[in-house]
Amino acid sequence: MRNKPLFVTGIGTDIGKTLISAILVQKITCDYWKPIQSGELENSDTMKVQRLVSNTTSVFHQESYRLTQPYSPHKSAELDGIEIDEKTIIAPKTNNQLLIEGAGGLMVPLNNHALVIDLIKQLNAEVILVSQNYLGSINHTLLSIEALKQRGIAIKGVIFNGEENTSTEDYITAYAQVKHLGRVPFMDTVDKESVKAAGGYIIFPSA
């Protein structure tokens, strides 16, 4: 049986989803797909990940929506004069493991009735949640995990990005009963070599 797609989402914006996605794509040589790109079309997240990955196996799939404005997808789409129809967002066909990068956090709206978390459910994906250690991050991380569990969405585990706080990390994973997939420390230089090396910080279970 083919593995479920992996969906990388975060507990908020600017958590490091794109960096973690690049590290995972390199580490497990999976395909990459960002369904919705809002703004930065000349330097999209797909392009950023592609520049950081050195393996020759991964395929980078075309976005379903390329929006010109750097806002939440529902607002960006409105400004572009369109409405996102989440039902038209269909995962690309591949025989490889597929990694999907979301836009913002779980409750980011795609239109007036669907959120990112609804898209995850629709795509039958398993979530990798990216967290950071800051004041309030326990609350944000546990709320995200609770929302996923309420919708019956499988959680592969949590990856922490940046500063270490073992007390926080241990509390989150123990309380929520989720796997700690590793912590990627702050990287002074982000390039192909450092991304490849950073894969060593992530423990990626096969099941």
Question: Would you spell out the secondary-structure blueprint of this structure?
Answer:
Layout: E1 6-10, H1 17-28, E2 31-33, E3 36-38, H2 45-52, E4 60-61, E5 65-67, H3 73-79, E6 98-105, H4 116-122, E7 126-131, H5 137-150, E8 155-161, H6 166-176, E9 180-184, H7 192-198
Helix pairs in contact: 1-2, 5-6
Shape: globular
Count of extended strands = 9
Counted up, domains total 1
Per CATH, which architecture?
3-Layer(aba) Sandwich
User: DSSP strand (E) fraction?
Assistant: 15-25%
Strand order of the largest sheet: 4-2-6-1-7-8-9
Stated plainly, the CATH topology is called Rossmann fold
User: What's the CATH first level?
Assistant: Alpha Beta
Mean pLDDT comes to 96
Gap between N and C termini: 12 Å
| Unreliable sequence segments | none
Main beta-sheet strand count, sense and barrel state: 7 strands, parallel
Helix content: 25-40%
* Global structural class: alpha/beta
CATH homologous superfamily classification: P-loop containing nucleotide triphosphate hydrolases
| Rg, Å, rounded | 16 Å
User: Given the structure, what is the number of helices?
Assistant: 7
Secondary-structure element string:
EHEEHEEHEHEHEHEH
